[in-house]
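=== Per-residue structure ===
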Amino acid sequence: MPYVPVPLPDRMNFPDAEMKARAEAFYQQIRRRHTVRDFSDRPVPRSVIEDCLRAAGTAPSGANRQPWHFAVVSDPQIKSAIRVAAEAEERNFYAGGAGGAWLQALEPLGTDPNKPFLEIAPWLIVVFGQRSGPDADGTIAKNYYVPESVGIATGFLIAALHHAGLATLTHTPSPMGFLTEILGRPKTEKPLILLVAGHPAGNATVPQHAKKKKSLEQIATFV
């Protein structure tokens, strides 16, 4: 397609004081996001998930190729199949496949091979990266900066789900090829993240270690 510039839509121009207030308000909200492993089976309307996915789809991407696909699962039988396959990989991981250093790093988080949340939570969202995809004319072409683009879109999705009042868990069993098979996705796609979404259980806990976040001075340098 040729380059066709159009006027910037949806322009925002806030005074400095309002910008500061809006930035502070967003920080105060997003800092309340916690990774949860104890989910309720309370239903979540599909329309809520759809709007959050629409938000994720607005993310920037390499050459605007939008190289992501979100496979959204609510079917109990498919969730059960995913749990069985994921726990098989996790047992290998915790039995030594991860290596001692990795397992030691995970110890303060209290994780183990058992993943009941994969069946309990109402929604599983499997995030796939597409190595290639169709052009406007249907021609299959290579995608660019796939991991970076998908990572940004996933961040948008997690923020949107939190904004809607839902809890999430980013689950990454390794390897994840079983998700391609169970969900019938093409081999040109690679599963990158298994995102669990729903309401936290009434007795949900989080590891104390997970509440420790690096300070601004540790994560940023102003030049």
